[in-house]
Amino acid sequence: MEGDTTVRRIKPFGTQQYVAQDNNGAQDRCENNGYNGEPKRKPEVNLYLLREGLAASLVSVFILVLWALVHLSLQQLVIGKPTGEFNAVRARQHLEQITSAGPRPVGSQENEVLTVGYLLKQIEDIQVETAAGPHQLTIDIQRPTGTFSIDFLGGFTSFYDHITNIAVRLEPKGGAQHLMLANCHFDTVANSPGASDDAVSCAVMLEVLHSLANQSTPLNHGVIFLFNGAEENVLQASHGFITQHPWAKQVRAFINLEAAGVGGKEVVFQTGPENPWLVQAYVHAAKHPFASVVGQEVFQSGVIPSDTDFRIFRDFGNIPGIDLAFIENGFIYHTKYDTANRILTDSIQRAGDNILAVLKYLAMSEKLADSSEYRHGNMVFFDLLGVIVVAYPARVGTILNYMVATATFLYLAKKASMPGHGGGRYVRDLACATGVALLSWFVTLLSVLIVALLVTLLGRSMFWYNHFYASVCLYGAAATGKMILIHTLAKNLYYGVSEWKLGDLYFDVSLLLWCCSLVWLTQHGLCSAYAPMLMVAFPLATRLLLAKEFKHRGKDLISKVNYVYAHTCISCHLSCIFKCPFLLLFSNTCSCLCQLHFIYLVRSTKRIMAGLGFVFTIMFLLVSCGLFFPYSGDLDSPRPKRVFLQHTTRTFHNLQGQVESRDSGLWINSFDYTGMQHITPHIPEINETVRTRCREDRPFCGYPWFLPVKFLSRSNWYLPAPEVSPSSPVEFSLLSKEETSWGTIKMTFSLTLTWQPFDTCLTKNYILAMRISA
């Protein structure tokens, strides 16, 4: 590859032949598109280039292998045989019993009586069973009342009154000064049985409690199992525990079990703050690790409008922790389809094995006694196909990132200074190729956006929601075809240059772009910089090793395949790491960017582009015809549409207390882009004529938002309906009236309200007090 290459160009009949030398007589590239005004002509076919069919086959095999690895990683929930310490069958019985009560919103009989009764019965049975063992088990039912403000969903103040917490303290019979906390919640949103969110976590915790309480060796520290009954009301029960319970002062760290999907693997997506010893504990103890610091930084950036009890323990308790969540099948999260039968026993087994092992490790660790001593910076962590976790301090990562970046720039600088590269000519070629690469990405992105716009204008948006592979074929074919087209056209800019050298040049471009990304992320202090670091380090090392091998083996087909696939497979292994759905786009970007140079090693791309064009045309026609409906009621694989509906009666008063207007209706909010597009044909009354208009002079535009999430729903409708007649009407009552010594009257009311001052008024102070008893 480093040797000279001669490309012979033949002029028309009757003219002189000439030879373009690659090293000594190379023409300037990206500038000189012809010789002496002669028309462009293709060089002779290089026999060492890959045939088009072989190249397509190799790429297809690579993609299939990559897909198979990711799929296997996600589906193989338990690696090896269970140890027997955690009984998933018994945990499943708990899950089925808890969910059999149905939806369990805060305050309902199902939540406050039935579920609480079942949990207490199981805990008391464990207490009796383990009474003769080395541990003591204490049960405390807490019903806290309190208030707090939180900067979440636009910011609001939350007040709670006599909610339910079940706290179970497991410790050696001699007592424990330092405690580890494990938290789950058993309440649900309305209309969902909440099997994954979060009954399965409570079932796992019951079985972990049973296992730890029955072990013969006493723990060094205690463990609190908190079953909280008010999480869906925006994290109220966890606040009540960590700020008011007497045991909270002894808690040194916590594990929070949550869900953003139904079943599958539980992923570590938040740790800290700082306290790298917690990540090290998970790495050392977890039987089936699954973790990514990328998920942590994406979640904490606020891109995902969600939060967990992790935030309450961190901000109000000032204690570090680990946040885990089930993430598979988020389509049915918070819906009626979140049922126990959708959670595999293997999923329960892997979660139980991990939680039990990590809790046991931390409860025996000396670091728990004084966790503040080990608080020093963040950690970079990620797993490899769920087999092992790689973790190292962020400060070490910063040094490593800059070392890799420096090595890359030195590599490029050395190439620029090599004899035969002409110094400035190589830099010019590299800059030109970088421009071509960036242009290809811009044109590719523009093409995909145009396709998406056309699909939207045709009224077929969100078809991907229920037909993922159809969207891959449509947008993937458009993006890949445009990328190949741009680089195929770019080949014509280079005369007297072998395709192997072009592939080598665009390999350098990939390194340069990833290196720039690496430096930018590192300078902004993001641990996710490990991703571009791997995309640079492994391909660069492989490139240098294979370059030496080429000098001895020549340009045979095996060497070419090794050259292309060795660094391509290693650099694209990151797609296997990024298994979370919200990182799928980034994974595809990585896969395409690191294969730019591969285009230049193929003799022709005409048939490949023709095939991609055919796939795109067929898929676009099928999508345009409405073959792919975005939603599905299939019980095996539901894709429900999310609609928030409230039956409300509104009464508006002026400043003098007089009624200005009164109406009743069904207030409808759609939480996706299609709005009521697919509902109007079936319910004609819900149309554009009943679409709401925001009244800026009224709180939340004059509509009864239960939570301040107006910014999440830009489209809503108000369908006239009969007046609300609740069985237990909401009352506005005067609790007390008192005349003070300085001539004012103090009145105390009981009501539920959303309050906003009038435009000409300024709020100076307010107090949300505890409930006043008669």
Strand line-up in the sheet with most strands: 3-6-8-7-9-11-10
The total strand number stands at 18
CATH fold-level name of the largest domain: Aminopeptidase
Main sheet summary: 7 strands, mixed
Helix count equals 18
Q: Tell me what portion of residues adopts beta-strand conformation.
A: 15-25%
Number of domains: 3
CATH superfamily of the largest domain: Zn peptidases
**Coarse morphology:** globular
Q: Quick one: CATH class of the largest domain?
A: Alpha Beta
Q: Structural class of the secondary structure composition?
A: alpha+beta
**Distance between the terminal alpha carbons, to the nearest Å?**
90 Å
- Name the CATH architecture of the largest domain: 3-Layer(aba) Sandwich
Arithmetic mean of pLDDT? 80
Portion of residues in helices? 40-55%
> Any idea what the radius of gyration is?
32 Å
Low-confidence stretches: 1-29, 31-45, 552-590, 770-774
Family: Belongs to the peptidase M28 family.
Domain Endoplasmic reticulum metallopeptidase 1/1-A TM: 426-561
Membrane topology: Multi-pass membrane protein
InterPro entries: ERMP1-like_C, ERMP1_1-A_TM, Fxna-like_M28_dom, M28_fam, Peptidase_M28
Walk me through what this model shows.
It is found in: Endoplasmic reticulum membrane. Its cofactor is Zn(2+). One of its GO terms (molecular function) is metal ion binding. With 774 residues, the chain is of the alpha+beta class. It has three domains: 6-71 and 396-621, no CATH class; 88-386, 3-Layer(aba) Sandwich (Aminopeptidase); 643-720, no CATH class. The chain has 18 helices and 18 strands. The strands form six sheets. Strands 3-6-8-7-9-11-10 form a seven-stranded mixed beta sheet, with helices on both faces. Strands 14-15-16 form a three-stranded antiparallel beta sheet, with no helix packed on it. It has a two-stranded antiparallel ribbon with strand order 1-2. β17 (733-739) and β18 (745-750) form a beta hairpin. The longest helix is centred in the middle third of the chain and has 34 residues, at 424-457. It is globular and about 95 Å long. The model is unreliable at 1-29, 31-45, 552-590 and 770-774 (pLDDT under 50).
